[in-house]
Amino acid sequence: MPVPMPAWLADISLLDMILSGVFIVAWFYQLYFWLRYMQGVNRWRRRKKKGKIALSAEQPGVSLVVCARNEEQNLSDYLPQLLSQRYPEFEVIVVDDGSEDSTRIVVERLRHRYQNLRLTFVPHDAWVTSSKKLALTLAAKAAKYDYLLLTDADCRPESDQWIAQMMSGFAEGIEVVLGFGAYFEKPQCVNRFICYDTLFNGMQYMGMAASHHPYMGVGRNLAYRKETFFSNHGFAGLLDSRSGDDDLFVNKVASRRNTCIVATSESVTWSIPKSTWREWLQQKRRHLSVSPRYKVSSKMRLALEPMTRAILYGLLIAIALLCPWYMAVGAAGLLLLRLVWQITILSTTAHGFGLRGFGLSVLFFDIFFPLQNLLMMTRNALFGQKQRW
Fold first, then answer.
1. Closest CA to 191 of 275, 299, 313
2. What distance in Å separates the CA atoms of residue 123 and residue 100, rounded to the nearest whole number?
3. Contact 354, 181 (CB under 8 A)
4. Euclidean distance between CA atoms 86 and 160, whole angstroms
5. Cα gap 383→66, rounded to integer Å
6. How far apart are CA 97 and CA 389, in angstroms?
7. What is the pTM of this model?
8. What does the pLDDT look like over 215-258, one tens digit per residue?
9. For the purposes of burial, counting CB atoms within 10 Å of the CB of 322, is it exposed (0-12), middle (13-18) or buried (19 or more)?
10. Count of C-beta atoms within a 10 Å radius of residue 13
């Protein structure tokens, strides 16, 4: 005698099963993404604590490169902290990128106190799409040492061990070292958006690199071998874009074997954030404008995360409207579980970098940023002007 079907199971239609099945697949991908990539920084820290991370004990000479355009105040504030690093052998090369203020005067004044400070410049009549790429190329040619460590004029290292921490990443076979560049926290609404966006992106690119899928870095805290720069012809192939001196270059030269991260608290740099929505949105649009030029494999991994995230939220609404109530409750429970692990991983990573956590505001940011990025990328595709070098 056949067993009668439970009443609750009889209420489930084919559409219900399809919606719930796609929802569960998307949820499991999100779980995989967060545990594999976004948890990568915390996993690296645990492995380092247990002595399982291969770090270099050698301290070879390094050339610290700072590009500066109208940065007299920031150089006065932060350049002495770069020059006072506790590292046996290094130089600081400041490249004056067409400044119209007293940038050169500030550097020349400091040169009397610091023998390892050098100054070069981009000619005012240089006609290029990205003068920063030219500035970095000039610095690489002028560099005395075989390693280049990059930061910006408005960056302050977390400690006098910053160079030592970043250089410890150059174990055997490593050519590119990725660090985290944070922004100063301020009591402004726009600052919370900037800090969350920066933390999420940092966890993503560092976590993927820790999982042997590097795709970008940030010029506020990035190191690579000088030989790597020149053997890959520098910024050749990237000169038609104003941006990309950091992320596109890393996307071009990084591989699963030659790239590592350094995610200690002393390896962080701190930068001055944008203070208005307009400035920040312009910066975001510029950064997003180069992402279509990433490798296909990088773009696919980056696209799957917001895609499955959108599926989760969209299907939660559809399940609530079209499916039995217990399926809606189950979907909401899974989404709540996802929020819990997001907050936990984000907070742990943030505290390790010296940042505040974000609590329940993660839910708002989780919905807001994919929509914002989609709108900006659409705008760039429709209205962006092609630049020529």
1. 275
2. 12
3. no
4. 5
5. 32
6. 17
7. 0.90
8. 999 999 999 999 999 999 988 887 777 777 888 999 999 999 99
9. middle
10. 12
